[in-house]
Specification:
CATH architecture of the largest domain: 3-Layer(aba) Sandwich
EC number: 2.7.1.11
Shape: elongated
Bound molecules: 6-O-phosphono-beta-D-fructofuranose
Number of helices: 12
CATH topology of the largest domain: Rossmann fold
CATH class of the largest domain: Alpha Beta
Radius of gyration: 22 Å
GO molecular function: 6-phosphofructokinase activity; AMP binding; ATP binding; fructose-6-phosphate binding; identical protein binding; metal ion binding; monosaccharide binding
Number of strands: 11
Pathway: Carbohydrate degradation; glycolysis; D-glyceraldehyde 3-phosphate and glycerone phosphate from D-glucose: step 3/4
Largest sheet: 7 strands, mixed
Strand content: 15-25%
Catalytic activity: beta-D-fructose 6-phosphate + ATP = beta-D-fructose 1,6-bisphosphate + ADP + H(+)
Structural class: alpha/beta
Pfam families: PFK
């Protein structure tokens, strides 16, 4: 009987549970055995696992987090980790390993493949949406929704005080969350990797200051800056200090942080996770290997794991341009 192992790894993402559920149901449909390893790759290193059947995945798809727990596993970057993980998979006579995670998790999967003969399949599970080969990753829609609702609330209090807010969003080193959330909330400024060079923030700061001054002097309105994490040297507090020092602008900082990773998955994420989970098991039955299952448009597709990690997925350039050229033009025009 074919035996599939499953784990969730790296930053958890809302919808991981829905993917686990779909994989387990599909395994039962195909009469495959399915076992889940706990705590990401650590479960393979420590041989920590349980058999998964229908009974284990009832009533989980509406919850964030992951019933298999998750973790980062630095040992997978060392020579010993992947070998040990391979031994555990051999011991359990696993035919295929499905990993739900982001690019670090997929790199671990590639490292493991050098020591193991079974099939490896990745499912894109990260709020960052930074994997090529799938329009969206599992968890991205929920993170954008959560951050959007949070900034709508911040906007109320910002409006009341005609205040400047710097709101930091997650995304690691990509601006998918920043741009989606910035556009969805009508942010006056979006500072992200696509439109700001962290090595030379002076032009952005000067532009920002004049835009804020226009807003405060002419429009008497709030000003929300959506800032991508890991972008501005010194982070949002440094930006706040620079606004104060260089232009006497008072601002409030809100770091949304891990709130974006939690909560009940949005329907889009539940559906994406279900489709990708079912397709991952189909891929096992087709003997596919070293692939990630993604969805582009309405088409499910298998892409090489290496491409998913290395090809890069830029933020929609039309959105970047539209925000700067059209949606905030009134601020730029006033400030010239
Ligand atoms: O990759 C998901 C993510 O939430 C990133 O957006 C963020 O940079 C990182 O993980 C945070 O990691 P940790 O939870 O380990 O602090």
């Amino acid at each position: 009987m074919t035996k599939i192992a499953l784990l969730t790894s790296g930053g958890d993402a809302p919808g991981m549970n829905a993917a686990i559920r779909a994989i387990v149901h599909s395994c039962q449909h195909h009469q495959y055995e399915c076992i889940g390893f706990f705590h990401g790759y650590n479960g393979l290193l420590n041989d920590e696992w349980q058999a998964l059947t229908h009974a284990d995945v009832g009533n989980i798809l509406q919850f964030g987090g992951t019933i298999l727990k998750s973790a980062r596993c630095p040992a997978m970057c060392l020579p010993k980790g992947p070998k040990q993980a391979a031994n555990t998979l051999r011991k359990h006579q696993i035919d295929a390993l499905i990993v739900i995670g982001g690019d670090g998790s997929f790199r671990g999967l590639e490292a493991l493949k050098a020591h193991w003969e079974g099939q490896i399949i990745g499912l894109p599970g990260t709020i960052d949406n930074d994997l090529a080969g799938s329009d969206n990753t599992i968890g991205f829609a929920t993170a954008v929704t959560t951050a959007t609702h949070a900034i709508d609330k911040i906007r109320d209090t910002a409006n009341a005080f005609e205040r400047v807010f710097i709101v930091e969003v997650m995304g690691r080193h990509s601006g998918h969350i920043a741009f989606n959330v910035g556009l969805a909330t009508g942010a006056e400024a979006i500072l992200s990797f696509e439109n700001c060079d962290p090595a030379d923030t002076a032009p952005q700061l000067a532009r920002l200051i004049s835009q804020i001054q226009v807003q405060q002097q002419h429009n008497h309105d709030s000003f929300v800056i959506v800032l991508a994490e890991n972008l501005w040297p010194g982070g949002p507090q440094a930006l706040k200090a620079q606004l104060a020092e260089q232009a006497g602008i008072d601002s409030a900082v809100c770091v949304l942080g891990h709130i974006q990773r939690g909560g009940s998955p949005a329907p889009e994420d539940r559906l994406l996770a279900t489709e990708l989970g079912l397709e991952a098991v189909n891929a096992v039955s087709r003997n596919q290997d070293r692939i990630m299952i993604g969805k582009q448009g309405s088409t499910l597709q298998a892409v090489p794991l290496s491409g998913a990690i290395n090809d890069g997925k830029p933020v929609n350039g039309r959105w970047v341009a539209a925000h700067e050229d059209v949606l905030t033009e009134y601020l730029i025009k006033h400030s010239e």
